[in-house]
Amino acid sequence: xxxxxxxxxxxxxxxxxxxxxxxxxxxxxxxxxxxxxxxxxxxxxxxxxxxxxxxxxxxxxxxxxxxxxxxxxxxxxxxxxxxxxxxxxxxxxxxxxxxxxxxxxxxxxxxxxxxxxxxxxxxxxxxxxxxxxxxxxxxxxxxxxxxxxxxxxxxxxxxxxxxxxxxxxxxxxxxxxxxxxxxxxxxxxxxxxxxxxxxxxxxxxxxxxxxxxxxxxxxxxxxxxxxxxxxxxxxxxxxxxxxxxxxxxxxxxxxxxxxxxxxxxxxxxxxxxxxxxxxxxxxxxxxxxxxxxxxxxxxxxxxxxxxxxxxxxxxxxxxxxxxxxxxxxxxxxxxxxxxxxxxxxxxxxxxxxxxxxxxxxxxxxxxxxxxxxxxxxxxxxxxxxxxxxxxxxxxxxxxxxxxxxxxxxxxxxxxxxxxxxxxxxxxxxxxxxxxxxxxxxxxxxxxxxxxxxxxxxxxxxxxxxxxxxxxxxxxxxxxxxxxxxxxxxxxxxxxxxxxxxxxxxxxxxxxxxxxxxxxxxxxxxxxxxxxxxxxxxxxxxxxxxxxxxxxxxxxx
Amino acid sequence: xxxxxxxxxxxxxxxxxxxxxxxxxxxxxxxxxxxxxxxxxxxxxxxxxxxxxxxxxxxxxxxxxxxxxxxxxxxxxxxxxxxxxxxxxxxxxxxxxxxxxx
Lengths: 556, 102
Ligand code: SF4
Prior knowledge:
Chain B: Pfam families: DUF2849 (PF11011). Chain B: InterPro entries: DUF2849 (IPR021270). Chain B: Residues 81-102 are annotated as: Disordered. Chain B: This is DUF2849 domain-containing protein. Chain A: Residues 119-273, 412-548 form the Nitrite/sulphite reductase 4Fe-4S domain. The complex is a heterodimer. By secondary structure, chain A is α+β, with helices and mostly antiparallel strands. Chain A is 38% helix and 17% strand. The radius of gyration of chain A is 23 Å and the shape is globular. The termini of chain A are far apart. By secondary structure, chain B is α+β, with helices and mostly antiparallel strands. Chain B has one domain (2-94). The radius of gyration of chain B is 13 Å and the shape is globular. The interface between A and B is medium-sized, with 33 and 26 residues.
């Protein structure tokens, strides 16, 4: 993975010192909250319901064991013994004291991490496929390009005060695991007929109040133009994006209001000015960054087949986990492992200090020291020899992280919601917990098959509810929580926005409503091979409405 | 009826303005404003506390008395006064010596 060079070290150190000074002056009363607020946000410090919150960037979700151990250490020393992994592949601490934050940032800097640009109207942490570098189906590792974008966008003077925040996601496979079509820019790394690398470029996707699927404005952009083209897009956005209305300030609104043809024309025109200039990526630079992401030296471990076979016979738990949480790797003797942070009845994405440390140990011992955070709020060991899978499973059982539910209904995305978040309208975590408990039976979950359930505590949609096969949005109605259900969303290469199925449900009704939707699917699906989303696409909302609202639905 | 709440500057802890004119960590014991004049007085206190950097995010919130205990009308404020509903081991609710509001 990428290692800081001297410049990076000096830069992060200087920023940490600068913010430490700002905190000191704030605590001494030398600067007001109004003056301090933008400064703290630039360093990832929010104020939530119970305390400050620190959001730490995990570039494209990639970590090594030293870093994860440090995240665990911070959780223990400065927080309340846990952290929350988010849909942005970041981690959030819910309870840090402002006076401790300089020390936390210094600890983070010691392992090449920081919290810069995790807030504000700038280019945020670039996200990527969590199986990047391991996936059998990728044409190339997208992370070198994410890293190039990270370096280019870090304190970029022109793009530090955009109309609104800006999110870029990159994938290197046809199968989109990075939800690129609901990002401001989505990049799909691919090869052209001549075998050269480049990107399909999507623009103007997003969730929140106005969910929109991104439009493809280029089918193939040669890799050397990554920065010049991205700059062209951002220039057009920076110039024309609406600053008069916060709710209309994202690039998706600009694309929508301008029209995709006219917008692409503007981008192309801007790009003509830039494409042969200094932003053109020299091949040597791309190679130098790519070298940081060179795959580990995979030695042949052909004994894995036999080991896995035996272990499956010995342990039903292992067998189920293998079927659900282990993904094919580009090397036949290896596999990628999903560590579910969705134990039955647990808060999605939360991990304790000791779990983080233990996972770091496992990664060091069995996974070439590599880890990923997925936008689905799980941890990933991208490279595990199949021969070591049983040992990894046993180690995960020890720390209660061997739940075999990856991609199933209890693998729920949920934002912090009203239990923590100052912007929330309703709780999300307890809803996730109750649904998870209702569907606790693994046998039942596996019968239901792939089902992406996503919950947000307000319309900002951090919990990606718009693109859940089943989405749940918490709203506040007359002082109480109400949950709207959407169906048919999807965040993969066939991205779609879910449709509201009907009137919302109270907190005590929502789990039953979800169960009704699921039972309806089981009744109307063609057979077990037809996934929930495919059944929904075939039949539409009607059978689900009928089941949820009965005659009321017919009357409507 | 309204009470005055904020978060303490140094550590972000949720606090309320008390009948004995301190910022306390429990909603019980908050000074209650029952009329417009009292609300304005609390508002001025909040503004002063913000200005002299004791607290941030100052708000007057609606409450009712349930069996003599203060209960915020909005769930948001109920959760602030108790702690995360999914983690009863955290927040005020985990420290009964600080709060009986949970
Ligand atoms: S979706 Fe709303 S409630 Fe959930 S984390 Fe985002 S802003 Fe907070």
